[in-house]
Amino acid sequence: MASSNDKTKGGRTMERLLLTNDSWGGTVLRVGLGLVMFLHGAQNLLGWFYGLGFEQAMAVMTTQLGMPKIVGVLIIMTQFFGGIALMLGAYVRIVAAAVILVMLASFGVLNYGNGFLTTWSGKQLSPGVEFQLLAITVAVNIMIFGAGRWSIDRALESPRSRISRERAAREAELTVQPPSHL
Questions:
Q1: For a Cys staple, 118 with which of 54, 60, 128, 143, CB 3.0–4.6 Å?
Q2: Dihedral of CA 144/86/53/71: which sign?
Q3: If DSSP states are collapsed to H, E and C, what string results for the chain?
Q4: What's the mean per-residue pLDDT of the chain?
Q5: With a threshold of 0.90, does the pTM exceed it?
Q6: Cα separation of 23 and 97, whole Å?
């Protein structure tokens, strides 16, 4: 049986997951990453935007790339539904962690023998790691700073968390004043 302390601890963990600021930076990062992930997911899940569709994408992942089926499914679902969650600003820290895992997994299955940048050699595309590193960088920022403005996370944030954050911001403004002679 769970004690009241366990319930409080779980509530605090959820508050920390949802805690975000009111910045436009977080909004821009999560919507941009969410859109890119959603579009990739729509290609792999639904065949939209000249994509393969679920069965063919799974065939590529399992036969050509040697992934277990469950990993392929998790990647496609993270791309599609995670992209939607990021655009809406819902549980962005959890989704950002999943995006990081997907990007790290791609390092293990794609051939990056050509280095950092994606290059075309003749008619063959040779992938680089720049996209994955950029996606990881954006996802880490989302994990640190949260969803930003106009997000479900911000709407779900407890009033107590919001009041504490606003009080801390006011105190910071009071303590950091420019010199009067400027």
A1: 128
A2: positive
A3: CCCHHHHHHHHHHHHHHHCCCCCHHHHHHHHHHHHHHHHHHHHHHHCCCCCCCHHHHHHHHHHHCCCCHHHHHHHHHHHHHHHHHHHHCCCHHHHHHHHHHHHHHHHHHCCCCCCCCCEEECCEEECCCHHHHHHHHHHHHHHHHCCCCCCHHHHHCCHHHHHHHHHHHHHHHHHCCCCCCC
A4: 82
A5: no
A6: 20
